[in-house]
Specification:
With 495 residues, the protein is an alpha+beta fold. 26% of the residues lie in helices and 27% in strands. The strands form five sheets. It has an eight-stranded mixed β-sheet with strand order 6-5-9-3-2-12-15-14, with no helix packed on it. Strands 17-18-19-21-20 form a five-stranded mixed β-sheet, with helices on one face. The protein has a four-stranded mixed β-sheet with strand order 1-4-8-7, with no helix packed on it. β14 and β15 form a beta hairpin. It is globular. The protein starts with 9 loop residues before the first helix and ends in a 6-residue tail after the last helix.
């Protein structure tokens, strides 16, 4: 995005001064990026969103999507113009009821100029009418809209919103959602949160979903196709909604044997992380060709490939752990990814312990001993891995190893108090690695700067005594592979 500068003639300048208040000089465009160094063009400046209302219609035969997005926000500066992140074709934009001018720029920017400038602190209602074929749109050479034989899926990280709704696409601007989708009878529409209602008319069925807790844009999901939907309630009282594509073939049984344990696993994780933070839990398994899973809030996305070798509850544990670490408490910036992935991986280690397939310490020992000092594994710093390495294995495995080192340093009582207290401390908000360290220091009463630096930021293999010298390594003794290792390693493509 480039600010356009025009030098008007004297008469034009005089008329401009008559038309615009003297204070208008303070109005300026919102930034085309929110300021994240990993993704400078993602998100936008100048406003904060509180709610998205999306009313959509989708035709699976042609992949045509039409919609009206109503966005409630508040300006954070004197604003002359602002951006939304979006790729589809826009036909109309209104701001506070008045028609606004709009244009596109860059890879995914929708520039909106309201009829009159917006003072700082002004509540705004932005209405965007749009349509298009998401599978034909790309930015930066990729497309995150996944076509299926009977529809499509929007689920990806760090971006997927651009292909189906205009947004301020950065985790630091969370909002609540109403998602209403009309599809031909026989097709279902699945999204986050609670299904409020359905209605049918003239060959179309409309599904109305509500996410009543703040949600990052990349955690919003949409699945369109033919699904078998199951419902249940966990022993802890959490409603569970799961969905399975009707054409999963040989992977159907293994997918159900894994995902149908969602309620049990949510209750188990609550023992470590505190009460489940959302109104529903669940997941869906569409017939896509992707290989990853993603913690889309309350309705986890699982690739069927996750179950190609049989049931795997470890991936379900990983994604459900994110509901606390990543979804409830979201990262401030993408460099803070360790708070998401390190703790979701560590939850898999705790599940291994629960299942009697290897303790967290045994898994830590195995990871540490499996990577010699000259292994590139140690050159990636989980505390700030860089955008190219953000989802590489060290963020997960070295990240979990750092958590075990923390546990050994502060002791189980303080450690488990931190695990449970952190989601409560920053409920429905955002936090950084530095925030987590400060909280762990507060709870434990110990200075942890050296430990965090060693395990999260140094591009070298930490010395064994920094974790647990008697256990981490034994000279001349090969590490014993815990029984759970293969199931955990099979989830290395998850997010």
């Amino acid at each position: 995005m480039h600010r356009r500068i025009i030098a008007p003639g004297a008469l034009a300048a005089a008329s401009l001064m008559l038309a615009i208040p003297a204070s208008a000089a303070s109005y300026s465009p919102g930034a085309p990026g929110i300021g994240d160094p990993y993704y400078p063009a993602y998100g936008n400046g100048g406003y904060d969103v509180s709610h998205y209302d999306l009313r959509l219609q989708y035709q699976p035969a042609t992949d045509e999507l039409a919609g009206t997005a109503t966005i409630l926000a508040k300006t954070t500066q004197d604003l002359s113009r602002f951006n939304l992140d979006f790729l589809l074709d826009v036909s109309e934009v209104r701001v506070n009821g008045a028609a606004a001018t709009f244009a596109t720029s860059g890879q995914h920017e929708l520039e909106i100029t309201p009829k009159t400038p917006l003072p700082k602190g002004t509540p705004i209602t932005v209405v965007v009418r749009y349509s298009g074929v998401p599978s034909t749109k790309s930015a930066y050479g990729f497309n995150t809209w996944h076509r299926t034989p009977d529809g499509a899926v929007a689920a990806d990280e760090p971006e997927s919103a651009w292909w189906w709704f205009p947004s301020n696409d950065h985790p630091s601007d969370k909002a609540t959602y109403d998602v209403s989708v009309a599809v031909p009878n026989g097709t279902q529409a699945i999204s986050n949160g609670t299904l409020q209602s359905t209605s049918s008319q003239l060959g179309w069925t409309r599904y109305n979903w509500r996410q009543n807790k703040p949600q990052a844009t990349y955690l919003a999901t949409l699945a369109l196709g033919r699904f078998d939907i199951t419902t249940s309630t966990s022993d802890g009282g959490v409603p569970v909604i799961n969905a399975y594509s009707k054409d999963l073939g040989d992977n159907d049984g293994a997918a159900r044997a894994s995902v149908e344990r969602t309620g049990e696993i949510v209750d188990w994780l609550s023992g470590y992380f505190g009460p489940y933070p959302f109104s529903t839990a669940g997941g869906y398994v569409p017939n896509t060709t992707t290989g990853y899973a993603l913690e889309t809030q309350t309705r986890v996305y699982y690739s069927q490939k996750q179950f190609a070798n049989g049931a795997n509850t470890s991936v379900v544990v990983h994604e459900l752990a994110h509901q606390w670490y990543g979804d409830d408490v979201s990262l401030k910036g993408w460099k803070d990814i360790w708070i998401n992935e390190g703790f979701a991986r560590y939850a898999q280690w705790l599940w291994s312990e629960h299942e009697g397939e290897g303790t967290a310490q045994q898994l830590a020992d195995y990871v540490y001993a499996s990577h010699p000092a000259d292994d590139a594994f140690w050159t990636i710093a989980p505390g700030d891995p860089g955008p190219e390495d953000q989802f590489e294995l060290p963020v997960y495995d070295r990240g979990a190893l750092a958590i075990q080192a923390l546990r050994n340093e502060i002791g189980d009582d303080a450690f488990f108090a931190v695990l449970k207290g952190w989601p409560k401390e920053h409920a429905y908000g955002n936090a950084s690695v530095a925030d987590f360290r400060a909280y762990a220091e507060q709870v434990s009463g110990k200075s942890l700067s050296a430990l965090f630096d060693t395990w999260l930021f140094q591009p070298t293999k930490p010395a064994a005594p920094a974790a647990r010298s008697a256990s981490i390594t034994k000279a001349g003794v090969a590490p014993v592979q815990p029984k759970s290792w293969k199931k955990i390693a099979a989830t290395n493509d998850v997010h």
